């Protein structure tokens, strides 16, 4: 009887150690690290390819948006009293 208990406890330990190692390997994500320098250089290259007319149009659009946001009034309902 004692031998069976040892066997079962050993089997249980092996089972749980394998299960833990499997979950540990599943939890570790091997995601690729983003390369921010390359992304920044790509954005600069695409910006340099734009024509003067495209740049001017974008600038005027941003200026109009800035004016619109600066004139906006944000209103809200008063908060209900805390109970």
Form type:
flat
Number of helical segments with 4 or more residues:
3
Q: What distance separates the N and C termini?
A: 65 Å
**Percent of residues in beta strands:** under 5%
Helix-and-strand structural type: mainly alpha
Would you report the number of β strands?
0
Give the mean pLDDT. Answer: 79
Name the assembly state: single chain
Any overview of this molecule?
- The structure is a single chain.
- The chain is 72% helix and 0% strand.
- It has 83 residues and is mainly α.
- It is flat.
- The termini are far apart.
- The mean pLDDT is 79.
List the helices and strands and how they pair.
Elements: H1 2-27, H2 36-49, H3 52-71
Produce a short descriptive summary.
The chain has 83 residues and is an all-alpha fold. It is built from three helices and no strands. It starts with a helix and ends in a 12-residue tail after the last helix.
For the structure shown, list the relevant keywords.
83 residues, mainly alpha, flat
